[in-house]
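User: Can you write out an input/output pair for a complex, sequences first and structure second?

Assistant: Here is one pair. Inputs:
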Amino acid sequence: MTEKNGKPDENCLEDLQRDLRRFSAVREWDQFHTPKNLAIAVSVESGELLEHFQWLTAEQSANLSADHLAKVRLEIADVLLYLVSLSDKLGVDLVAAAFEKLEINAKKYPVELSKGSAKKYTDL
Amino acid sequence: MTEKNGKPDENCLEDLQRDLRRFSAVREWDQFHTPKNLAIAVSVESGELLEHFQWLTAEQSANLSADHLAKVRLEIADVLLYLVSLSDKLGVDLVAAAFEKLEINAKKYPVELSKGSAKKYTDL
Amino acid sequence: MTEKNGKPDENCLEDLQRDLRRFSAVREWDQFHTPKNLAIAVSVESGELLEHFQWLTAEQSANLSADHLAKVRLEIADVLLYLVSLSDKLGVDLVAAAFEKLEINAKKYPVELSKGSAKKYTDL
Amino acid sequence: MTEKNGKPDENCLEDLQRDLRRFSAVREWDQFHTPKNLAIAVSVESGELLEHFQWLTAEQSANLSADHLAKVRLEIADVLLYLVSLSDKLGVDLVAAAFEKLEINAKKYPVELSKGSAKKYTDL
């Protein structure tokens, strides 16, 4: 775990989480925001994000126009917003979970075995 | 934009971003991490997350067992990890984008029109 | 394998496949239709299909309005169109594969173990 | 609409549909197979299909090994199985819908405007 100014940064999304709670509360949307529905929303928004890259070559995807990038940026944001809401409903500390998963991945993909390879860990 | 201890928290994922860069660099995976491929990865991981909720009722999804929640937590983490990597490749400040999108959503969904309704903004 | 009028019906999508080939050929779209891109398209269209059910209860999803159903119907069609194109590019007989997978599923999910249960076969 | 041996081929998936109904009925799975859950299943399976192409180049995706292709084939089959089940629940004639959507697409993408272009119809 990393620290910043003596405070762990795992909870760094708490302001966003708090704003999202308010956003949903004043609109009385919590009735729709079951974990199942929020997981659907994460997936639907990921599809909208992916649509922007659908027919691009790898090179084109690394050289988006300013206009295209602005749209992609907001689709990325949508995925994060629902991911934060889902984590909040489930009581998951999203950033702590990400650091933990990264450590797990480091063990699943030892450098010497996975260097330069796109193989799944089960095939290493 | 919110501030915390005099520092904007938009860059709060920078530690995670830095660790992800190193993780990818030592494995020489940047060759695979085109924005297109990372957008695919976000979508694939979102599907794996959704799979956990596939046959659950809304109620069941809000009452996961500890074992089930532990698995879901790591799937959520996977989505965030690829989302951070994609944002990094594109030069997108992920958290700033999320706050901005939330403001846009607040305008698209005025409280008086959207209260208690799951309608899309285009149908309000 | 089932037969109809002495002809196996596995190739029953061949007319659709032929029309799709022409559609793509006259537009010179084969350059974009790599298997990878078509698999992305299947996933993106599935996301658009799912979006229609995102905030509905199970009951509401079984009682769509005529207008809503008409939209859902065309999203379902989009998924099939890309699935047929992908199968064509890969030389896969889509319907034969589906019958074969159904037989595999029948073995993975024996009636006595899976009756009334939504458990994944790995948990039976 | 095309015809084959004097019979329209739109209903050509009816054998598969009938087998799927039996498969689900004997396992008492209809309770889980709401349209919403089946739409989720289509999306989840599409994600599993896409995972196979995630890190491949366009060229590699067109030259799968026999072993890889066999896996991809069964993932494609899974998407079709759930798509047929969903269509059945909604009373949608899947193949007729696909032919109809193809006609709509032909109008949205006139040959002269879309030839050699991957632009979305809204940008033509």
